[in-house]
Amino acid sequence: MIFSGKSIKYGDNVDTDVIIPARYLNTIDKKELASHCMEDIDKEFTKKVEAGDIMVAGYNFGCGSSREHAPIAIKESGISLVIARSFARIFYRNSINIGLAILECPEAVDGILDGDKVEADLDNGIIYNRTTGKSFQTQPFPEFIQKIIQNGGLVASIQKGDVK
Amino acid sequence: MSMTMTQKILAAHAGLDKVEAGQLILVDLDRVLGNDITSPVAIREFERIGAKDVFDKDKVTMVMDHFAPNKDIKAAAQCKMCRDFCNEHEVTHFYDVGRMGIEHALLPEKGLVVPGDVVIGADSHTCTYGALGAFSTGVGSTDMACGMATGKAWFKVPSAVKFVLKGKLNKYVSGKDVILHIIGKIGVDGALYKSMEFVGEGVSSLTVYDRLTISNMAIEAGAKNGIFEVDEQTEAYIKERSDRTYTAYKADEDAAYDAVYEIDLSEVKSTVAFPHLPENTKTFDEIGDVKIDQVVIGSCTNGHYKDLAEAAEIFKGKKVAKHVRAIVIPATQDIYLKAMENGLLKIFIEAGCVVSTPTCGPCLGGYMGILAAGERAVATTNRNFVGRMGHVDSEVYLASPAVAAASAIAGKIADPMEVMK
User: Fold this and answer.
1) Which of A13, B241, B268, B365 is surrounded by the fewest CB atoms within 10 Å?
2) Are A126 and A20 in contact (CB under 8 A)?
């Protein structure tokens, strides 16, 4: 899987309360959740995000609540991939389960600025900054996890018979 | 190969003699939990899987606590979706308004978790039950759905950090101060992906309720779980509530830990976490005049009877400062009733507090105490992220029930020692 888009960059400890504030958790409608994505940290996010864009962030991305609404809102907003220095564990698990691609790569976070054109090869764990011409290598996911992401999540994979 | 407490529980539930950190395993679940905001997503996924029934109607648990009693029409629809699902699948442990409480106070109270259990819950504070010697951890709604359908979940076996407790807490210092002290020390990702294991002679000086508060906030250090060794107090607590047989696990003497910290409980001081991370902790020698607008005493972290009693001791015969709104939320109906019978509610109301029915409400900025721009709250809750309790320009200061009560009276963040002088 290859993803490409412009980078939208944030700092450390981006928590699930700013990704999708709890006041909007009275719905499970994906589009409605996406319309409030990142609202409490970046009011411009929903205006500037375009399909395929790549979110880049620091340590402990997605800390806090277990709300799956957070990766759902990010994915539904059009973000194709999140690259972070590290992810909080429940967010990490939820992202794979709903089919949101994520990569841990501190070097790439250092080497990508907000707005840079980024391309990522998930199968091989390579991230390219097309604006600066630099590339970064990280550990790719094992094949079965890649398959879950490709299928659009754990439930879709079970439906397809890829996970038993 | 030696194992930690957590690893032993996971091995037993995976049908393995040994597991080691990093190993991927499939484990049998003793309980699968959800609430009124995470269960609707799980129900949608459960139906997509095409599962006909839940794996065990006695082991699936849903608690309507976050936006219940229903805060608006959408919240009402979400609770209805959960209610209909539980009726259809004859789920035994469905807790609705009138019987519900805040889930992580309710499950231990009802005897639904015993030592050695493996529990997953679609709520990050599911780690609370580690206080009872169980492995419990927060997951998302898809994991909850798969857990409800199959009774299983996969885990990467975690490594662990050990906390050796010694000594005894001082007056007005409680479990909340201990966990805030620890998070201040190791940071909000200080135990990322790991277990926090609490052992040592100091454990027995902590009540089960202090331990529930400590395990509850393990997630605030990024941990997968936070677990205590079982002792006589745990056994007495369980015996009153459950007749299930259980296993109390101890780590091997030579089990490997990524780090070991010694905590002398007698040196822990009243601690407050400043905005906007639980790791921004200060003690009173570093806190100046911080005027406040609201106090919240409650939540899955500090809504137990013991917490209310500690607050009541401070409120007794005193008044909440005129510019402060003080909100007290007993975590369960039983706690509410006991607080009424023992005169705590009278103390709160006479002091000028409002007392609410059990709900998560303000903790996550749902309702029942939302902050306006520029307002500050001292809360016994667990998170002080940007916008957590309301407007993005409001602030939450995390503290113990004693500090929260003292602050309500003083009208600023206050040391209970000073207010009670």
Assistant:
1) B241
2) no
Query: Which residues have C-beta within 8 Å of that of residue B354, sequence separation ≥ 6?
Result: B325, B326, B327, B328
Cβ contact A64–B277 (<8 Å): no
- Flag whether residue A28 sits within 8 Å of chain B, measured between CB atoms: yes
DSSP B170: P
All residues of chain A having their beta carbon less than 8 Å from the beta carbon of residue B41 are 28, 68-69, 72
Instruction: Determine which of A136-145, B95-104, B229-238 has the lowest per-residue pLDDT on average.
Output: A136-145
Residues B375-396 pLDDT 10s:
999 999 999 999 999 999 999 9
pLDDT score for A144: 84
Residue B341 CB coordination number (10 Å):
9
Helix (H) or strand (E) holding A3: strand A2-9
pLDDT of residue A42: 98
For the record, the structure tokens of B64 come out as 């309507």
A139 has a chain B CB within 8 A of its CB: no
Asked whether the predicted pLDDT for residue A164 surpasses 70, the reply is: no
Q: What is the DSSP letter of B204?
A: G
Shortest CA distance from A72: residue in chain B = B41
Angle, CA B311 vertex, CA B305 and CA B314 arms, to 5°: 145
Q: Per-residue confidence at A145, pLDDT binned at 50, 70, 90?
A: confident
Do B199 and B164 form a contact (C-beta atoms < 8 A)? yes
Smallest Cα–Cα separation from B400: which of B375, B376, B382, B418? Answer: B382
Question: Which residues of chain B lie closer than 8 angstroms to A22, CB-CB?
Answer: 37, 66, 364-366, 388
Task: Give me the interface pTM, i.e. the ipTM.
Answer: 0.95
Q: Specify the residue for token string 């209310």.
A: B308
CB B310 within 8 A of CB B174: yes
Question: Does the pLDDT of residue A162 top 80, yes or no?
Answer: no
Residues B64-83 have pLDDT tens digits of 999 999 999 999 999 999 99
Alpha-carbon distance B75 to nearest alpha carbon in chain A (angstroms): 5
pLDDT per residue as tens digits for the range B329-366:
999 999 999 999 999 999 999 999 999 999 999 999 99
Per the structure block, which two tokens stand in for A85? 């220095």
pLDDT tens for residues B158-205?
999 999 999 999 999 999 999 999 999 999 999 999 999 999 999 999
Could you give the C-alpha distances from B66 to A28, B79, B104, B128, B307, in angstroms and in order?
15, 10, 12, 17, 20
Is there a cis peptide before residue B89, judged by omega within 30 degrees of 0? no
Helices then strands, counting H and E runs in chain B, come out as 14, 18
CA separation for the pair B22, B214 (Å, rounded): 25
Inter-chain residue contact A93 with B50, CB threshold 8 Å: no
Count H helices and E strands in chain A, helices first. Answer: 8, 7
Instruction: From B222, B363, B376, B210, select the one nearest B287 (Cα to Cα).
Output: B376
CB pairs under 8 A between A and B: 125
Average pLDDT of chain B, as a whole number: 98
The pTM of the full predicted model, rounded to 2 decimals, is 0.97
Across the interface, whether the CB atoms of B142 and A17 are under 8 A apart is answered: no
A18–B37 CB contact, under 8 Å? no
Residue B260 CB: number of other CB atoms within 10 A? 12
